[in-house]
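Record pair follows.
FIRST:
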Amino acid sequence: MCGVFAICQQTCQNRQKYDLDEARKLSRRQHHRGPDFNGCYQDKKTGDILVHERLAIMDLGVVQPIQGTAPNRQVIHNGEIYNHQALRDTELKQYNLKTTCDSEVIIFLYERYRDGHICNLLDGVFAFALCCDGDFLAARDPVGVKQLYYGVDASGRYFFSNEMKCLEDSCGDFQISSFPPGHYYTPKTGFVRYFNPDWFDYRSAIRPLDLKLLQKTMIAAVHKRLMSDAPIGVLLSGGLDSSLVSSIASREMKRRGMTVHSFSIGVDHNSPDVIAARKVAKFIGTTHHEFYFNIQEGIKNLRKLIWHLESYDVTSIRASTPMYFLSEEIRKLGIKVVLSGEGADEIFGGYLYFHNAPSDEDFQKETIDRVLHLYTSDCLRADKSSMAHSVEVRVPFLDKAFMDAAINLDPAFKRPQKLEDGRNCEKFVLRSAFNTDQYPYLPDEILWRQKEQFSDGVGYSWIDSLMQYCASKITDKEFSQASKLFPHNTPHSKEAFYMRKIFHELFPSDQAALTVRKWIPKWQKNQDPSGRASLIHESSVHNLGEDLCNNKSAISQQHIDKCRPQA
């Protein structure tokens, strides 16, 4: 995990080369992403620039850019390439690579193939830029786990950066956009999509139920993400997703003789997530660290958080606050890498509003849309709130092989199920895949725990207090001007208005505002993103039961049981 900043000079209209020292100053705005080392390169012929802020995870002494076989062949990379050793042993066996850093394989692959479709050879997550014999290439991983923006300045230069703050001054009056996931860019081709899985088409979701395949690909996804030369741990909220990841990781890390550190956070020791995480940690045998944050501290930190997050989305800000504070404590303990559970709710329709999906087709379309926009929500939150304190978050659920197995599954198997005790259960198929009779992964009360939004699970008082505070800071008169002040993504609550106001002060360009996508639940009257806004939540703020929740899956418990893995 690092900070990458690059400038493609080749599109510049006046051909005046950009100043390297100025580029380094802009890159330093994201120094928090890579406090260990920094390096830079400018191509003497083209003027293209690469600047890197490094958080050392693999081959701890390496400084980027990393050179290929010649001085004018250089790469900077943010992320992890989990199959880098396999690539060294196969595609690159004729080359003499000089480090054990996973990033190095990128420049050598480009030297061999000279095509952006090398991205399809990479098993991992990445935002990278390279210069090679006058060529310039930038690319982003398939679903945007790693954050990346691009901008265009007055002279037509293209800028690339993990964080928008490095682009606002130079490009804010012209263009700033999110770099599209699953694409690469060259000045000759523009943006080209390289990632085209079958599951982009909802009609391809016809795979029969195979719980063993789900279990196998998930375990493999977790194991490969234990690759690290730096200390590693697990985020443990006590919900299904992070608990499964923690359990799988704990088994493998113990087998390798590693100490397993787990981390949770809440507003106090009685927060729903903290209580659940405590039970999981005891069950799987981790060295558990429990932290608390004060609600007033969270409110006081909003401006700093929004500067790091670069979003005014209410859901992202609510959930990023506890993750920001937790990452700060994790870094103090010397841990640089943590595994987390992002992505499962999007793949399996785990959010409570999915109970109201009118049909299998609508359910599948919505899951695909959520996965394809993770880069604007949970991936953005996980990346930026943790990297504010130089902590890398890895997300096994967004592994390419696992996504292929899960998203292509017939949606009838992924729809919410009704349990024997009458409770509604989302992500039933995922729970069933790890509901083994022998060597259980989780206690039953956690395996079948209802979905909590992270911002809810840390303690319901956090969101309630935040809403009250924001309402006290925005007058009715000021709020009445919302559509005039903010015509794009107009805030529809005083909380949203307050967040947008801070964002606008930090990132005043219209281009910056256009990069944000609001997270809004579907198929429910209340548009508040909190899980408690759903009628299906056991602690719903409506307390109206589940009369509007219908069209549950008709897949029988007996059918699921027949497909269960036995160990």
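SECOND:
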Amino acid sequence: MRPYLNSAIKIEPFRLLLSPILRRSSSSSSSIRTFTFRNFQFPTGTRAPGHLILRRCRCRAMGTSSLEAVVRFQVKDKIELTEIEKKIFDRLLNTLLHFNLQTELRVAGGWVRDKLLGKDCYDIDIAIDNMLGSEFVDKVREYLLSTGEEAQGLCIIPRNPDQSKHLETARMRLFDLWIDFVNLRSEDYSDGSRIPTMKFGTAKEDAFRRDLTINSLFYNINTSSVEDLTGRGIEDLKTGKIVTPLPPKATFLDDPLRVLRAIRFGARFGFILDEELKVAAACDDVTSALAAKVSKERIGTEIDLMISGNQPVKAMTCIADLTLFWVVFGLPPKVEPAVSEGCHKLCIAYLDASWNLIQLIGCSVFTVEQRRLSLYAALFLPFRNITCKDEKGKTAPVVNFIFKDSLKQKSSDSETVMKIHRSLEKFLNLFDLLTSNEDTQPAEVDWGPELIDVPFSSKLRVLAGFLLRDVKDFWRVALLISTMIYPANIDSTEDFLDKQYQLDKRIELFKTVENAITKLGLEKIWDVKPLVNGKEIMSVLQLKSGGPLVREWQQKLLAWQLAHPTGTAEECLDWMKQTHLKRARIQ
């Protein structure tokens, strides 16, 4: 008999769509019942085994009761090593035997967490209890040479307190995997300083100095066992909780970037943030420290990992809920026009809509890079018409400021997103043309003088061709973003949310326009070379050097080429000569 679950059920850590595919397990308790589920979709996008615990919660004051559901994640009892991992660890243990070292080697952090969750991980960090990483790497190299093997890629990454890297790291390559080596340590932070005093520590001290309990687990290579020295790392994995080993406010003030890491891991695994952690993350002291003590590069790296991850919307929503949105995506003091009070909500609404559209259209339609930049383009969509003054006093898009100053990300990302934003108005203008069976005159958009001599019947292909040649491989991304502001620019959070995104209509519009562009034969049109080159243009115009006139004719000839897809170079050149003669006579 299937259990009846009423609307009073509270689902944590994330919303569950409870289907009738629940099977009651045996339980002697009447207040706690456990159900296993066969078709549960985790946020990571993979089906994972687990079970749902239903607890009956009674309210004495109201005389009522309800059920509370808690998801428990399946965590492995022991770590199963791959063949490569066995070979790596064997080499390290043989190094200890070769030199008769009384050293304990532990794998720390994310590798342990991921292996316990049944996930592959190739990021191996070795913590050493009685020597520096560089000293141990030298001994591994010496041992490998004695066996006829060659040590690869040995290097030392120096400490860099300015980038919050407080410890020297040794690195080497074993069996095509990079392995990092550091010593176990404890940290002491002095008042007003973000640079800790480092010293050798015990494994327990090292575990408690880490950011989260789920990242504080060790795998002891000597004993082949998992060590949970905080006493709650494995339990927090099972219950899906993001908790700090020490009081969260002190942990965040030591390194405020840990706030963003907590959000990222919570989103990535579908875990919930501890309530005390959320209070600490949102307090003024921590937000101020995040803005003042952490480099923009490190913040930008965390944000990019979230955007590139499996739950970008959840991550950005959490950043906003913790009042960190404007700390992370800081704007210059003066922008024009002024940003509305609820602008960050609209940013996340657009991000949510684009994420859902990508899933419904099909992730395979977009490359990984296209998906990543489409989410940035959606997140910053409300800023597309906002400008500020750059360091030279020139007017510049505020989107460029966010990428280059607030996040310190590469210029190419900023340029691509801004190019997508600039293309939106032209895409909106094309929608009616591409979706209508009737001859429709293009709206008043500055398409350029190259369309003057193009016959009306060919203007659609020419317009779309120029647009695609501008945005190139990102034309589908620009099309996707354009569907979210069609038929009119929606800059009100309420307007956009009231429409509940209308995803079905936007998908239909996307596919209609995509099919129309494909039928026009414009796929990869940006790779098509001009039929007539600059020297030939200069010859017809009887010019000795290039200039604005040559560039103008290059655009006109490209328009002719788009209007005549089967035309030859000779025909294109003849058209240019005739057109040039006609204009010369008129002038």
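COMMENT: The CA atoms of residues 267 and 314 lie 6 Å apart.
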